[in-house]
Design brief:
Elements: H1 14-31, H2 34-41, H3 46-72
Helix pairs in contact: 2-3
Length: about 90
């Protein structure tokens, strides 16, 4: 028996990773303009509604920071990531 490892191709990630991510980003981008309008309809003033919409974007940025720091070796110390086998 030969122990040939199958080669990894990025195309295999298209359906399980990239498509759901693109759908989520498109949905979130479509809802951002509706947040201030809905908040104003519920009685909030425009600056407060805009602040709430900005918090959604800031939350996305803060959630993405640990992944970025891991790429730079900040959290993992530059060691190989065992879950994704990168670096």
């Amino acid at each position: 028996m030969s122990s040939v490892k199958p080669t990894f191709q990025v195309r295999e990630l298209a359906l399980p990773v990239y498509v759901p991510s693109m759908l989520f980003a498109a949905g979130e981008s479509g809802l951002i303009p509706l947040i201030p309008a809905s908040a104003e309809k519920l009685g909030a003033d425009i600056p407060t509604a805009a602040f709430v919409a900005g918090l959604v974007l800031i939350g996305t940025l803060v959630a993405d920071l640990p992944a970025h720091l891991n790429d730079l070796g900040g959290f993992s110390g530059g060691r190989r990531c065992t879950a994704c086998r990168i670096r």
